[in-house]
Amino acid sequence: MSKRAPTFYVLHGPDNFSCRAQIHTMRDQMGDPSLAELNTTVLDGKTATAADVLSSAGAMPFLGDKRLVIVEGMLSWLGRKGAGKAGKAQLDALVEGLSRLPPHARVVFVESEALSERNPVLKLAKTDPGGYHKLFDPPRDATRWIVNQARQEYDTEIEPRAAAALAALIEKDLRAADSELAKLAAYVDGERPITEEDVALLTPYVAEADVFEMVDALGRRDGAAAARLLHRLLDDDDPLRLFGMIVRQFRLLILAREYLNEGGAPGQMGAAIGVHPYVAEKLTRQVRAFTLDQLEMIYHFLLETDAGIKTGKVSDVLALDLLVAGIAS
């Protein structure tokens, strides 16, 4: 005896990219695109009612065998604080109706955040034979996901360090990772694996890499090299955004220096200070050039520079030049 196909789905969680990929697959499974469009309804969960959902799902398919009803954000909207008795009544109506859907129905509730385990429709999806539920959480480390996505979607290999660099850049935004992968795959065109240099060349990672290199030069007290890198960055970037990146880099270096001074293991630093392992590895190498006292002095200098820019005492570009000269001296 074959397993009964689900008639209603609860897809929830912050990994919107993977969730939308599953919905795209469900649309593809509807068959002929022109007929699939006629048998697909998309409802705004903030304005639709339980009756709208159930009546759409109950309608007979037109020249097909399934009716797909996609409901955006309804369960979290009805379960929010302030929804009151009206929201509860709508959820109760859904629970009653969903368990009696016809076999041709495919109702998909899409929620951009994880639902509470107390949500009655989620609870029903876990117990009813016609229910299906899936929590979409971004991977803790997107590196493996990027390697697999490159192979499966773009038939392209990406070197481990390149994947780690891209993962550090996009953090948990898989849609951004996929967008960058498409660009990188087109660039190498199947002729070779994607390298870390390709990531630096074609993605926003290039600015962060140059900031890192500039701070390396400051650690060596090589003011000339640091100034050259600074002005290369200024050719393509806003001075205030660049200043923010420099501040962030030194804040991370202070956290790294404090962690290592307290006897922390370098291999665990990423988790301890909240950065990607790839970033932690680079910080571990870079922080050797600075003592904690030096870093705290530089950070105080950064705060003074920020105040000078905001009060108009110095222009943003001149402030950056003076900052680099002051740290390198």
Short description:
The chain is of the alpha/beta class. The chain is built from 17 helices and 5 strands. Strand 2 (40-44), helix 3 and strand 3 (67-72) form a beta-alpha-beta unit.
Defining key terms:
5 strands, 17 helices, alpha/beta, five-stranded parallel β-sheet, single chain, 329 residues
Written overview of the protein:
By secondary structure, the chain is an alpha/beta fold. Helix content is 61%, strand content 9%. It contains 17 helices and five strands. It has a five-stranded parallel beta sheet, with helices on both faces. Helix 3 (50-58) links the parallel strand 2 and strand 3 (67-72). Helix 11 (205-219) packs antiparallel against helix 12, helix 13 crosses helix 15 and helix 13 packs antiparallel against helix 16.
The helix content is 55-70%
Strand arrangement within the widest β-sheet reads 2-3-4-1-5
Distance between the termini: 79 Å
Number of H/I helices: 17
Radius of gyration: 26 Å
Structural class of the secondary structure composition? alpha/beta
The overall pLDDT average reads 86
In percent, how much strand structure appears in the residues?
Answer: 5-15%
The topology string of helices and strands comes to EHHEHEHHEHEHHHHHHHHHHH
Low confidence ranges: none
Q: What overall form do the CA principal axes indicate?
A: elongated
Number of strands: 5
Layout of secondary structure:
Layout: E1 8-12, H1 16-28, H2 33-38, E2 40-44, H3 50-58, E3 67-72, H4 74-78, H5 84-98, E4 105-111, H6 120-127, E5 131-135, H7 142-154, H8 160-170, H9 174-188, H10 196-202, H11 205-219, H12 223-236, H13 239-261, H14 269-273, H15 277-286, H16 292-310, H17 316-328
Parallel strand pairs: 1-4, 1-5, 2-3, 3-4
Helix pairs in contact: 3-5, 7-8, 7-9, 8-10, 10-11, 11-12, 11-13, 12-17, 13-15, 13-16, 16-17
